[in-house]
Amino acid sequence: MFKLHFTLQGAVFQWRGPAPYYYIALPETACEQIRGLANEVSYGWGVIPVEARIGGTAFTTSLFPKDGRYLLPLKDAVRKAEGIGDGQTIDYALSLTLTPRERPQRPGKARSSG
User: Fold this and answer.
1) Which one-letter DSSP state was computed for residue 77?
2) Which of 74, 78, 97, 100 could form a cystine bridge with 22, CB 3.0-4.6 A?
3) In the chain, where are the structural domains located?
């Protein structure tokens, strides 16, 4: 098991739905690296669990794939604790945990005696 770390910067944007949600679109270079590992770290539906830090606030969440990039959702508690508003450019850090998957063992040939 090992962790892949990113230190990034991005603009917060609001996506209006039934309730407003706030995200940061990851830079393309980070998206390319993550895409290359997506099969190793993704849940079945394409979201990728991460540990994130903004300022003094650490939290866990999942990156969402959208239009060929990944979005980092910002929890209201994090935005309020760090004083983050729509359109603000912020520094943030992400960590992805990579765990090697067990490969199924190929059954051995049966040997006949005699």
Assistant:
1) H
2) 74
3) 2-98
Q: How far apart are CA 68 and CA 43, in angstroms?
A: 17
Tokens of 106: 């190929």
Per residue in 79-114, pLDDT tens? 999 999 999 999 999 999 877 554 444 455 444 444
Identify whether the C-beta of residue 84 lies closer than 8 Å to the C-beta of residue 12. Answer: yes
Fold of 2-98: Elongation Factor Tu (Ef-tu); domain 3 (2.40.30)
* C-alpha to C-alpha distance for 40 and 113, rounded to whole angstroms: 42
Q: Do 61 and 50 meet the contact criterion of CB atoms below 8 Å apart? A: yes
Length of the chain: 114
Predicted TM-score (pTM) of the model is 0.80
- Residue appearing with tokens 């794939």: 65
Cα end-to-end distance, the chain, whole Å: 46
